Protein 1
Amino acid sequence: MAGGPIISAWGGFEKRVRGMFLGWGVSGLLGLIGLSLGRGPAAWLPIAAVSAMAFPLSQSASNMIWQSKVAPDIQGRFFAARRMNADTWLAKTFAGITGTGPGSGKAIQFLLAGMLFLVIDAIALSIPAVHDVETLPPDHDQAQKTPADAPATSDGGAG
């Protein structure tokens, strides 16, 4: 519950993509790997609290990037479709299948998912098109400007 108010008060990273990847990294490292290695509520509670505070960091940064890239008149449809794709059948189908003792399946699931999170985070951050997603495609309000709309610049004849 603390992550949202912290982001609201702070405003997040100036370069939103960094906040997105930092949030995912903390969630993968602490939230998934940390929970899988913890042995009992004394470890799980603080790990879950820190991981939960990282979630708004990644989600708010991601949403802000998308809102700047998608025209306002189609954002409702876009975000609805994006949310539908996030709810996959895999999570429901394979939950609890691995492991033989109580909780072991979830522990393996968290461990593997956390490691995969970190690998994906590192790979994605190394791709220039992803790293520079805030600067490469134009914002929706800038994409419709023509060169004639751009302000004229002049060096005043200095050379």
Protein 2
Amino acid sequence: MLTIGRFGPVTVEQARKIAKAKLWSVAAGEDPTGDLQAMRRQMTVGALIDLYEKQGCFVQRGRRQGEPMKTRTKTVTVAGLRNRVVPLLGKRRAQSLNSGDIERMVADVTSGKTSRDEKILFRQRNIVRGGASAARKVARDLSAVFSFALRHEIVTHNPCTNATPRGDRRVEFHVVFTRIFVSQRLIKTVAKPGVLRPMTKLCAIAQSRFRSEASLCRS
């Protein structure tokens, strides 16, 4: 199936003319769909990020999944991709990237290879920092870009899926302390008069275990 365009930007008369031209090309032995897919396969990472900014900036998970990103979130996300991914991988074909390329990009961003501080306007500077946190953030954002490209058949795989950059300990830290908070409330509940003491002891053991996990996350 060949998609000509969305109704609105493309009028009915324009769609008819385009469809007629495509029919003539098919009659001449050409393959418009195959040509379009081949053209998409040649898209660079920089061009893919431009397309993602126009069509793909949507929330990936949570209660707002599928909704457009808020303006500030979109601005920060696209700026991170342009300032950290494009200098390193912008001219590479998106289809040609593999997990090793993503891991090298994360290592370069962590070491500060894309860091810079430049003046852009009067009293305005473009400050790009490196570090592990910035590298993990841009790796997650790039994975969302490739998921978008995968859905639109621009690429056949997401190179970020099997990449193994340094894990995001912040998520694990949050989950562990949520469990500690729940266990503390449970101890207060079961410690009331008339409730079995073994249950209180069991919750205390669980709390101690969760605290040890939290200390490991911080180390």
Protein 3
Amino acid sequence: MCFGSLLSVSGVLPCETLAATKTATFKATVTIAANCTVQAPPAMNFGNVPNLTAAHTANAVITIRCTNGTPYTVGMGPGLNSASVTTRKMKYALGAQTINYSIFRNAGLTQNWGNTTGNVVVGTGNGANRNITARGQIPVQAVPHTGGYSDTVQVVLTY
């Protein structure tokens, strides 16, 4: 912007002599960080059953969302009442009695869902939700006592 002429040692300089320009550049950058979220339902509810003379099944849907290209694994801990992911235990609300149950990764109930290589769900994120069905089964067994039984299982998302 020129506001008239400038006075110099040799006289008046016209505005046009101040028209030189310089340029610089900068890069715009962003790094997309690997990120995942996991949502588990409040319960895998087997319902009210009169006995355990037949196996009972129930499902629970776990929702995973990972950034595009992010590899992940989804594992499950043994629960609060067992040290083993192959035979989890629901504990009686008013005592020490337990009921055995298992959680599987497949509809055929043959692939145990645990927390080590070989018994976890593996995937790669695409930025969208992925629903994964956990399938529970209470096998045939003696009923130790009527009443409510429960367990708390941790879902572990690693990425």
Protein 4
Amino acid sequence: MKFRTISAVLIFVFASFCAMAEDFATVLHKAENGDTYAMHEIGVVYANGEGRPQDYAEAFKWFEKAAYGGQHNAMYSLAIMYKFGQGRDVDMVKALAWHALAAKYIPKNADEWFIPRAKVDMYLRRPGEIAAQLSTSEQERAAQLYAELATKIGVPESAKGMPIQQP
């Protein structure tokens, strides 16, 4: 009896998960029609090689489109690609600018974070960790790039200062 109950619960959970999961074609269609969250998800598929060959150039393309649409996870993903040279040369200045934008754009709801606090802390901490590895002139270039990117993204008021928490 206990085994059947556990089995039934596991089957229900698995079925629910499968019903919620969208196939690649559906997510790609959403991404191609401007859904920035879907764009990020397509980038993740290509970056990780999930059901598709790993393709950093394709991942970068989708992350960049989503980031310019204001999607904070895509900004973070671009920063990681620059930091580790995934499909790009390592560029810590660009990594810092994108990490700072991700920290600035992480969503809030009525001034309360509605995503896990650990993720928020990670997003806020990364710019300081990267900045600590850079020279003053590199930090200044990152701040200039941050302001330019923020303006391109469409929220110029966020360009007033690059958020950096010291590690």
